[in-house]
Amino acid sequence: MFAPGLLLSIALPALAGLPWMLAAQSRRAPGGWPLAIAYGYVLGLLITIAGMRALHLAHLPLNLFTAVLLPAFAGAIGWWRMRGAAEFARADARQAGATWRAMKRMTRIVCVAAFGLIVLRLTTLGAELLLRPVFPWEAVSAVAAKARVWYELGVLAPFVPPASWLEGLGNFTDTEPGAFALPSLLLVWTAHAIGRWHEGAIGFPWWMLGASLVLALYGHLRRAGGGVAFSLSVAYLFLSLPLVDLHIALTGAPQWIGATGVGLAGCALLRWLEAPSRELLYCFAIGAALAILSMASTWPWFAIFAVAIAIRRWPRFAGKLAVGIPFLTLLALLVLLQTPLTIAGVVLQLQMVRDWGETLESLFLLDNWHLLYGVALLVAIIGRRYVMSPLWLARTWIIGMGLGLLFVWGALSLPGIWYGGLRDFSYAALQFAPLLMLWAATAARAAAFRDQQPAVAPTPAVPA
What's the CA gap between 423 and 15, in Å, rounded? Predict the structure, then answer.
């Protein structure tokens, strides 16, 4: 039951979401299948979690039979609507074969090497995840604690704060009783699928989210005009980042789920800002739902994304928004550093982290993590004519504000909300990495191939 159950925990969400993402694609283009698989799997996970929450609201028991009902129904309807998917797959396979035959020998070698490195890295991460018990503090003290209770009882039993538990006001408590339920429910789903609580295997959704983010990055690069070898190489470079591969194997840690959601949403938005489409809006919504439902600290990214959409949608005010928003943000930070603000009895005052300089120094201790920012800086200098053009302004603005957010989370603290330092800086950098990688890769390609950039970005038509 173990191996088939583990396969079921992966295959059912993928099959539930894949047909809907295929149906959202208005045209067949390179990168379509990787994007559909990546976002389709996440969509299927969200459908599965929604079904588990619905069972709780309906006061029905939570087990494997009841948990598969909604994703199986959604998948059946989706595949019925996509009855032509097999023909699409055959046509795309023929096109992929023609592309492979047209490649030069050296290009094929690069493709095989990059693909092999990706498979090897994901395989070793999967083995590490299977053989290692749950150990991250957030998992042991909250996420996995809830999941184990919910799995054993078959219901989503409420958790109360420790003080209330001591007073006899509840049966269960942990360090974060009010935390988001999605990370815990991912563990519960996998445990029900494999038929038992296995400390390693229950974390396979974390591994699959890592694979989905790699697939999405590859698919977006192919859609942006990148070649197979180039896109595979960039996808492997992303997977090789130390904080990325570390968190893929951290079962129960919600930071990777939030980072995957921000990465999926942000990459889709970067592509939408270049070429608006309904499919990319769906991809953005799926990533946003995953991020927002897993960690509260992801909301600043969506504030940044909203302003970037406004910059792209109303080019007449693009310059004012691009300069005015950062100026007002900086002014607000300076005010909060000097004067506390009281809201509903809560005192808010920013403080500088004492050892914030060590946060920047730590970049050079994390293997090749600092190289990502060096490469991005080099691309910005070489391709400055492109990245500052009207068509690129909104995308470059997201990257600039993302760098500012890294500084705020690393150098400043707001007691009760975030505490700054290396820990929060690392979480922000983890969320920022896919966006920075996609932006740097597409900007490098634009500079290398001298893509023609219009003098004024056209006003995008909002898809119906």
Answer: 36
Mean pLDDT for the chain overall: 85
Question: At residue 80, does pLDDT exceed 60?
Answer: yes
pLDDT attached to residue 326: 86
How far, in Å, CA of 427 to CA of 300, rounded?
A: 13
* 43, 20 contact by CB (below 8 A): yes
Spatial neighbors of 132 by CB under 8 A, at least 6 apart, are 199, 200, 249, 251
The β-bridge relationship of strands 346-348 and 341-343 is antiparallel
CA distance 197 to 378: 48
> Cα angle at 286 between 184 and 40, to 5 degrees?
90
Helix ranges (DSSP H) in 351-449? 356-362, 369-382, 384-387, 393-411, 421-449
Q: Is the pTM of this model over 0.85?
A: yes
**pLDDT tens profile 105-139:** 999 999 999 999 999 999 999 999 888 888 776 77
- 312-368 pLDDT, tens digit per residue, is 888 888 778 888 888 888 888 888 777 777 766 666 777 777 766 666 666 655 555
CB 184 within 8 Å of CB 159? no
Angle between helices 2-24 and 85-102 (to 10 degrees): 90
* Domain range summary for the chain, segments of one domain joined by +: 2-287, 310-449
- Long-range Cβ contact pairs of 368-377 (< 8 A, separation 24 or more): 368/240, 368/241, 368/242, 369/241, 369/242, 369/243, 369/429, 372/241, 372/433, 372/436, 372/437, 372/440, 373/436, 375/440, 376/436, 376/439, 376/440
Average pLDDT of 137-154? 87
Q: What whole-number distance in Å separates Cα of residue 407 and Cα of residue 396?
A: 17
